[in-house]
């Protein structure tokens, strides 16, 4: 059995060994750059971890693990164009280093490359793997669309927000586990429980992100706190605040967020004060804890020897303890 | 057995019946718009035609036929952004009607949708179909990359140009036939011959395009003649002219093409005069005829009853006779 960090290291090694055609360089250089730029490699590790629950060797899951990580990086290439993000993991994003057309086309090739990698899985499992992969991929696109739609709306409900982050973030983590479990020969029940676990840690992770962006210790966090507030981003915090506030408070919160004359630090402090008054921090902390509890319950229900669950428990604990 | 036009009509009907989720509308509306905007539906008809060589029913090939057409339309969405094309089939292109982000994300969802459709094929054939589809899809991206690369180069050889159009155009036609043959249970030899037929008609088709763009009767052609010359596009005509010309003629042709002070009609006439002097028109007409002859040779070698080849012969003849 492999530890979480062994599987992350294995993912990194396998990714580094992926072959690329030399030409056309304009298509493959950006792919190599994007996949070599680091990242936590949580998703391929999840694929391998799920497989490792049912098999000592994880070889059978390697193609799916790589497919998931290449797919994830494809979404980053295209999202960075759509979100106009200039940097990614401390380096220029592909559309900044090259241009939009390069990021579009190399992204397309990465999506196709992900399917090529997936096609390297065992033929018997392939139809099922392909179905899961397709569902996940469509879900991620739908999530990105909702995320963009929400930018233009002020009436996003908490339920809508949760559905969006489920699609945009959680479904890929859950799908990674499901693919790994299928490769490892897990039962349908086990596969479904792992999917549920993935959804729960995905939601918990995103809610933590929302929380940290507003409440983190800025030294520990590594980037300025309050970015979501300044962008007026519909987060778990904001959608809950808008839901809890009475009509006058709701209106003044929306006005405050759209006010471009207030200095950033003051805007952040004032929004945070409203959140504090409404108990948004505690509410979110409780929601995060509840999702992590759900995640552990899904693991409890798995019919595998408890010691085999160590890497997944370890991951849950690491995520739960993060401060950045 | 179905005729070419029956299979085109069937493709149109099947496409019109494709279900789309209602939400998020921002993702699915552009897909419905793009797929409903017409098009010749040659590619899905090729899938069905190839299947129909080996089976009376074409049901087994319908998912692959739809996958190919959805994939083709995905490439149009993204190519229209990259090429800054404002219209498509007489209507605003998706990135003009909506915006770039919409065309990127809806395009991505279409590519995934193509894979979902493909996954509806018979499970036994799926691994092979997926491999063919992946190869084709990567090839099309590589072709688009070369096409964009060529815009910045003046030293594109005829061989490079042919390789580019093989990837960008011919490989999808060939792949469509190969997928259909696999669905229909054709032998490996038959499948390969159909692939070759597809490459040949694809190359012939693109060379005809190049020829018509410079030499068509503008009334019959339906759009202004000479667009490629004004854009300085690397076509079969231009790459051959540059290869045939001596160094001074080569240099003056390149200067003429990049000269922005000459009025369009004169530029077109002068380039055409150079082409005429170099015998480029006849050369291209011969190449087109040779590719169509290759196409028919591939069909001749197929071990199926000659009458079953009627739709493919009909297609070849229709393509060969086109004036627009």
From TrEMBL, chains A, B:
<dbReference type="InterPro" id="IPR000092">
    <property type="entry name" value="Polyprenyl_synt"/>
</dbReference>
<protein>
    <recommendedName>
        <fullName>Isoprenyl synthetase</fullName>
    </recommendedName>
</protein>
<dbReference type="GO" id="GO:0046872">
    <property type="term" value="F:metal ion binding"/>
</dbReference>
<keyword id="KW-0808">Transferase</keyword>
<keyword id="KW-0479">Metal-binding</keyword>
<comment type="similarity">
    <text>Belongs to the FPP/GGPP synthase family.</text>
</comment>
<dbReference type="Pfam" id="PF00348">
    <property type="entry name" value="polyprenyl_synt"/>
</dbReference>
<dbReference type="GO" id="GO:0008299">
    <property type="term" value="P:isoprenoid biosynthetic process"/>
</dbReference>
<keyword id="KW-0460">Magnesium</keyword>
<dbReference type="InterPro" id="IPR008949">
    <property type="entry name" value="Isoprenoid_synthase_dom_sf"/>
</dbReference>
<dbReference type="GO" id="GO:0004659">
    <property type="term" value="F:prenyltransferase activity"/>
</dbReference>
<dbReference type="InterPro" id="IPR033749">
    <property type="entry name" value="Polyprenyl_synt_CS"/>
</dbReference>
């Amino acid at each position: 059995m492999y530890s979480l960090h062994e599987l992350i290291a294995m993912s990194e090694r396998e990714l580094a060994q992926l072959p690329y055609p030399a030409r056309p360089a304009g298509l493959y250089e950006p792919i190599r750059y994007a996949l070599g730029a680091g990242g936590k490699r949580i998703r391929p590790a999840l694929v391998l971890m799920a497989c490792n629950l049912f098999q000592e060797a994880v070889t059978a899951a390697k193609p799916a693990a790589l497919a998931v990580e290449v797919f994830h990086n494809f979404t980053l290439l295209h999202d960075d164009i759509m979100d106009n993000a200039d940097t990614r993991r401390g380096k220029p994003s592909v559309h900044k280093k090259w241009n939009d057309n390069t990021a579009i086309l190399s992204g397309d090739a990465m999506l196709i490359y992900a399917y090529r990698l997936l096609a390297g899985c065992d033929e018997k499992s392939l139809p099922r793997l392909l179905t899961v992969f397709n569902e996940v991929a469509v879900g991620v696109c739908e999530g990105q669309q909702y995320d963009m739609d929400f930018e233009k709306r002020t009436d996003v409900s908490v339920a809508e927000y949760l559905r969006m982050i489920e699609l945009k973030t959680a479904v890929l983590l859950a799908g990674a586990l499901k693919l790994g479990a299928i490769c490892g020969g897990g039962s349908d029940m086990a596969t479904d429980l792992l999917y549920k676990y993935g959804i729960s840690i995905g939601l918990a992770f995103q809610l933590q992100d929302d929380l940290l962006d507003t409440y983190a210790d800025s030294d520990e966090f590594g980037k300025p706190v309050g970015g979501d507030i300044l962008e007026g981003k519909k987060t778990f915090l904001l959608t809950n605040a808008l839901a809890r506030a009475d009509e006058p408070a709701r209106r003044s919160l929306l006005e405050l967020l759209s006010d471009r004359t207030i200095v950033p630090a003051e805007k952040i402090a004032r929004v945070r004060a409203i959140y504090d008054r409404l108990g948004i921090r505690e509410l979110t902390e409780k929601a995060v804890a509840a999702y992590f509890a759900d995640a552990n319950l899904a693991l409890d229900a798995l019919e595998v020897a408890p010691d085999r669950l160590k890497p997944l428990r370890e991951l849950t604990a690491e995520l739960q303890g993060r401060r950045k």
